[in-house]
Amino acid sequence: MIAEAADLLLRAEEVRWTMTLGVVDGWLHVSLRTIDRDRHAGRIARNLAGRRGFGGGHQALAAAQIPLNGSNSEPQIRKMVRDLTRRFIRATGNRSATGERLCT
Hints:
Elements (H helix, E strand, L loop, with lengths): L1 H8 L7 E8 L2 E8 L6 H9 L4 E4 L3 E7 L6 H18 L13
Antiparallel strand pairs: 1-2, 2-4, 3-4
C-alpha cells in the first residue's frame, strides 16, 4: 500500500515528487516517485536509508527500508519521519520549501 499511495499521489496536479512512509513489522518503509527523472530517485532512497537501512531503485521510482531497532514509540517514529522528510526535501532541490502533507 505504501508504494501504491506514492504512485497515486504523483498523479495530483503540479506534484513532481512523492514520498510515502509506513511502519511494518518494526521497519520504516519509504517509497519515492518522481516525474523529474534527472534527479534519480534510487540515489536519494539510498541516501535516506543511510547506514542504518537499505535503499535503492531507478530514476523515477525507489524505496528504502530502515529498521526501527526498538525506536517504535510514537514520538521516536515521528522524529525519524520529520528528519527523513527534511532530508528528502533538501535532496529534491527544494531547500526553501517545507513540503506539503497531502494525507495522513
